Amino acid sequence: MKLKKDFFSRNANVVAKDLLGKILIRKINGRNFRAKIVETEAYFGEEDPASRAIKKGDLRETMAMRAGTILVYGVHNSWLLNIVTGKEGRHEAVLIRALEPLNFEANTKGPGVLTKAMEIKKDFHKENICETGVFWLEEADKNAFEIHSSFRIGIKKDLPEKFRFYIKENKFISRK
DNA sequence: CATATGATGGACT
DNA sequence: GTCCATCATATGG
Fold this sequence. Notes:
Layout: H1 5-8, H2 12-19, E1 23-28, E2 31-44, H3 57-63, E3 70-75, E4 78-85, E5 92-101, H4 111-117, E6 135-138, E7 147-150, E8 164-167
Antiparallel strand pairs: 1-2, 1-6, 2-5, 2-8, 3-4, 4-5, 7-8
This protein binds a DNA duplex through strand 3, strand 4 and helix 4.
C-alpha cells in the first residue's frame, strides 16, 4: 500500500522514525527496484543551525512546500534525498541516509551513494513523492525491529538532540 | 566570471 | 578514527 500525503504531514521527528522499515520503490525501464529504509535524519529549517534551509532561498522555499515534496540537495559530488514533512510552511524535512536493497544488488550504504544506485537526481527536486509514478513509498511488512537514535552525522553545528534514527544491527547503515 | 564551501565517500592508519 | 578529491550551488564582482 502506497504511503499518502497524510503520512508525511506529521512532525519530521515522527516521520523520520516511522519511515524506518518502509519500502522505497523506484521504477526504472519498467522494472521496480525495491529497497527498505534503514536510516534517516530529521531536519528543521527554523531554529536548526544544521539546516541550510534557514538561509538559502530555494531550499527554504522547498522545505516550506506541502508534505511529500521531494527535495534533492547537492553537496560535494553527491545528491542527497529528502522528503518534506509537516504542515505546509513549517520548513521540515527528513533525509534518507541508507537503504537495504530487496530485489537487486547495489551499494546503498550512505545518502550520496543511494541516490546513485536508485538513479535519483535533481530531476525529482520539487516533485511530489505521491505523484511521480516512478518513485514512491509503500507500507512495509510488519517486521519487528529495534530503533536506535544518535546525533546527526557530518554536521558542524548540531542541536543537542538526537535526530538520526536507524534500525539496530542492520548491515546497511552508513556508520556505526 | 571567480571563488568558497560542504547534510560525502572511499582510502588509509 | 583522519585525510582529501571532487563538483553543484551560492554569492560577489
